[in-house]
């Protein structure tokens, strides 16, 4: 059984930076693809970034080089470094884990690809 716990969400000003972390509890972390999704009030859950078991990252178009996803296999943790934050980035951020390790068959940006989800961490960007 896999358990995911997000941390790092807080209130930050426009233009600021924040690093989110997701701690993975379970076996074989390094074989999982990991991702971040987010959900703003009144909107659906959308893909932010993913990193496959082999280390290949992918990002949503709106990220526009502002965010970086990384993983520390020794610590079974995945991070999301967010820079130049905008008010539109305000959302609950969720961590997700994919057993396939390479986002198959649905793709890294598809919620149906993921087998496990965390409870989320709130990020609020204020002006």
Keywords summarizing the entry:
127 residues; mainly beta; seven-stranded mixed β-sheet; four-stranded antiparallel β-sheet; globular
Topology:
Elements: E1 3-7, E2 11-13, E3 18-25, E4 33-39, E5 45-51, E6 57-59, E7 67-72, E8 77-82, E9 91-98, E10 116-117, E11 121-126
Parallel strand pairs: 2-11
Antiparallel strand pairs: 1-3, 3-8, 4-5, 4-9, 5-6, 7-8, 9-10, 9-11
Contiguous helical run count: 0
What is the general shape? globular
- Describe the oligomeric state of these chains in a short phrase: single chain
Q: How much strand content do the residues show?
A: over 45%
Span of the ends, CA to CA: 41 Å
What structural class do you assign from the helix and strand content? mainly beta
State the low-pLDDT regions, or none: none
Main beta sheet strand tally, sense and closure? 7 strands, mixed
Mean pLDDT, rounded to whole units?
96
- Helicity, as a percent range: under 10%
> How many DSSP E strands?
11
Q: What is the radius of gyration?
A: 13 Å
Order of helices and strands: EEEEEEEEEEE
